[in-house]
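Appendix B. One record, verbatim.
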Amino acid sequence: MSEERNYEEEARVQGWRPKEEFKGPEEKWTDAQTFVEKGEKITGILKSRLDRQDQQIAELRSANKDFGEYQQQLRESDRKKAQARIAELEAKRAEAVTAGDGQEFTRTDQEIQRERDNLSAPPPPNNESSIEAAWAGQNTWYGRDQALTAFADGVSGMVEAEGYNGQARLDEIARRTKATFPDSFENPNKSRANGVEQGGQIETGNEKAHTYENLQPEDKAACDRFVANGITTQEDYVKNYEWE
């Protein structure tokens, strides 16, 4: 026979308090079992979301890797073509010497030099550090949200290949990221702001409206913790919360 589950012990670890210790409104208090079961439901929602996010990150990283390999293949192909072009020009230059054609010799010799310069040219210097720092300051999601960061890194090479550079490249990366993940950039206060009167009170017409303000204290605390850890947003937490 399995041991009976100690809900009160589990609930206390998660911040629950018995009624005599509870400092919030009496109607907001719940028993230990209800508290634990609610937490498990919320955890299930978040786990499902994180599983989907992990899959998306894996797909984005795979796409980024594939794109990087493709770009490497293109560079290698260009290098071989340049070498073949140099060999062809060297043959023409030799023919010009044999024929005593000084004009053709000069032309082919100049083309050979241009091809060799292109092959040996180092990558352009990275002088965008200050621009990138300013961009990162304006786009604080980068580096904090795994899915958004992985997507931004994934499209970076494609954006550059399309001719964007400098500030334009960074702005295009941000634009595409926001267009692909619009829900991640919605203002969580937008829906509440529409219901605020000039006196500053939220007019819901229902004290049990599905808003952050109407969460139970322990659920508010859980919401705040999840938001602080970057697991979800306040808006998504409220939307997925199992209301009575």
